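Final report, closing paragraph on structural work. Over the funding period we assembled a curated collection of sequence-structure pairs, and we close with a single example.
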Amino acid sequence: MSFFDKIGDKYRSSDTLTRLIMLNCAMFALVLLTDIILTLLTKSTLTAATIFQYQQDPGNLIFRPWTLVTAPLTSWGLWHLLFNMLTLYWLGGLFLRRSTSAGMRGLYILGALAAMVCFTATNFAPFLRTAQGTMPLASASILAIGTALAFQAPDSTEKLPLLGYVKIKWIVIALGLADVALLPHPSAAMDLAHAGAAAMGWYYQYRLRQGSDITAPLNRLYVKFSDLIGKMIK
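Its predicted structure, as stored:
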């Protein structure tokens, strides 16, 4: 069995949280490989960030529609990836104690979509435009999950090294601030995108308390798409 066969088997047998982490790591490897190829083989100023991250200008989606899929799996470099994956592993595990894998998967996607909408909206306000022009959205998706968790069980506590028991709401706030501090190109546009993802996390929990799961339609679509892909590769 080849290395890639083993990875495929691991992915198929893993839970949603592990799959999300594997997809993020695979996307990081693809971005890194693309940057190496562009540096060695071309003289273009084009970067992998431009190719795979979400574009602030909605007109660019016509030329790079795949960013709707790739951007939620991208981070700002290695250290940001490590921080994001550790945060996702920890908060995702806490989330799954109180909710479902389908809910986490759907909220990860909805958080990214909310961030996309907000980031795109800033393109129409000149004072909010960012010189970077692109944005990775993994941290926004994770923030949506963390925000939902914070509103789901704000006063529940988790034991932290050196600090003892700390309420989940303070943990989520601290991680959110740490994520912003790690951004290499902070801007009002990116802050607004993260705020949109956080608002989606709150809305998910608000509707869930009313007996409605806003991720259900998205998850049904995901299952149908997965079944279709499964039939195609058999």
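The longest strand covers residues 157-160. Residues 16-41 form the longest helix (26 residues). We thank the funder for supporting this effort.
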